[in-house]
Specification:
- The structure is a single chain.
- By secondary structure, the protein is mainly alpha-helical.
- The chain is built from six helices and no strands.
- Helix 3 packs parallel to helix 4 and helix 4 runs antiparallel to helix 5.
- The chain is globular, with a radius of gyration of 20 Å.
- It starts with 13 loop residues before the first helix and ends in a 10-residue tail after the last helix.
Length: 201
């Protein structure tokens, strides 16, 4: 039934993959998934919210700094850019949702449409956005627009086809990973560091 693939005869157990005790000695191969889980209770919630965005940003750094010779263009099935864009989009979506929560804006129905979420954020907070912040808002708006044009519902970088079996990517696109990385980092840090003292709605 299966094409023969050489694998070890030692079958790993669940405990070989996952442990729920704290052993911070990474020399044994174990890594802590979330540092927020070992924070004091009063910091766990806010820590977890920003930590997940930070983990996406770190993975974006790793993927965008992958060593490859930019002078040699090779078409390969081993591209990292689909998961890279997924991480960028996910960091943007979570940052917008965090900003909505920080500014006490309730969303009526769950949404993965970042353009819609960003529009709600701008509309509800327009009185608080300073003139000197307009450039930043425009930069974030361009980033949101680009990511939304590539994936308007959070599915295009997770699957190859829609529920109707239509291909998500039929035309070739080239991306600028450095610009994506820089703009996503800037946007995420900005939206996750809002002065919440203004928003006692």
């Amino acid at each position: 039934m299966f094409i023969c693939i050489k694998m070890s005869d030692d079958i790993p157990t669940k405990e070989d993959f996952l442990r729920n005790n704290i052993d911070l000695d990474s020399s044994k191969g174990w890594e802590l998934i979330s540092t927020s889980t070992i924070m004091k209770n009063e910091f766990k919630y806010s820590g977890a919210k920003f930590e997940i965005v930070q983990s996406y940003l770190h993975a974006i750094d790793i993927l965008s700094n992958s060593s490859y010779n930019q002078n040699i263009k090779i078409v390969s099935m081993r591209t990292v850019w689909v998961p890279f864009l997924f991480l960028c989009r996910q960091a943007v979506e979570l940052s917008i949702k965090n900003a909505l929560e920080l500014t006490n804006i309730q969303i009526k129905k769950p949404s993965h449409n970042i353009q819609e979420l960003w529009t709600i954020f701008i509309e509800k907070n327009k009185l608080y956005i300073l003139e000197k912040e307009q450039c930043l808002i425009k930069r974030i708006s361009v980033l949101v627009e680009v990511l939304d044009s590539l994936d308007n519902d959070g599915s295009h970088f997770r699957y190859s086809t829609s529920n109707n079996n239509e291909l998500y990517r039929e035309k070739p696109y080239l991306i600028n990973p450095k610009l994506f990385s820089d703009e996503v980092h800037s946007m995420a840090l900005t939206l996750n560091c809002i002065d919440i003292s203004l928003f006692n709605r």
